[in-house]
Amino acid sequence: MIFSPNYVVTPEITSLLERIEGYKTIYNSKKKSSQLISSLRESSRLISTYYSMKIEGNPLSIEEVEVVIKQKDSSRNRSQDKIDILNYYKALKYIETNKNLSFTEELIKNIHGLVLYGTPKPSSYRNAQNVIRDRSTDSIIYIPPEAQDISPLMKALVAWVREEIKNKIIPIPIIAFIVHYQILTIHPYNDGNGRIARLLTTFLLQRNSFGLKGTYSLEEFYLNNSNDYYKVLAVDGIFNYYIGRVEADITDFISFLLRALVESFAKINLYPSKPKPRPIVKNSTSQLRVLNVQQRAILTLFAEYREVTSQDISKHLGIKTRNATYLIRKWLNSDFLEIGNAAYKSRTYILNNFWEDFIT
Predict the structure, then answer these.
(1) Are 200 and 332 part of one and the same domain?
(2) One domain for residues 316 and 252
(3) Is the CA virtual torsion 183, 131, 85, 320 positive or negative?
């Protein structure tokens, strides 16, 4: 069995790839301390876990997710929601920290073992037919291939990926997003396919120079644009693998995920590079750890600008202005921020002197 995806490299795709390369160049040209990179990477894992599990319907807030991941919740009788959070985080950390991993069926099965059971042991593909249903109506929206076809389809996908990476003709982001689509199309497991698709996308991007050192997250874009995501995934409503799905044109799906990568790269490069950016140099990683995920993300904003507005914070964190206002009020009370310009219409905020020392 040979895998041969059907898509066209449109002018839009070419333009998106050029923008991705441009943002990558900008990012790599900026000097960043190891403390800042470590903090951003940890924040990105938290954000990726939160949004990825939110897609799955997990009800925990980002603050609760952070507590679970940092194991401040010592309850032995953790809920399934908390177990799912921990398992996804383990899988994300596994693919980011194990440098000897390569794209194989064993990797895919190990990731599934982590996602479902919390251990990197190979799990078997499903052995029966299943269907994908709409959560709200319970109607069938997709019938994946039969169980006996899964193994040859997965072998064909892995062989294609390895060959194309070796050939260096198809851009890595396109390869990663085709894998994302094909995992969801084959649906090799009864549960966990979406999580595996997202994790494999991250793995391929990070291992092939598009990871920006693990400092960004695509999952937030998927959730915030979920209607469009499911629309392009449905490829014109083709709901049976054997009737149209095999040869379906996935150009729109690739374009959509490339836009996600552009937005994520742009966000991490939100502010222009300066000749001498101010890196975090204070070498107390333990002190950085007392900050939550949003506070650590804000340090990168203050590494470029001494004073910022609530709109700057809202845009940088990708949240609504009213939520940014709530955070600012909270941070003012906790001595993380101080008021710079007190004028109502042009109010700005600065870091408390203690935290300012980390980026001076």
Answers:
(1) no
(2) no
(3) positive
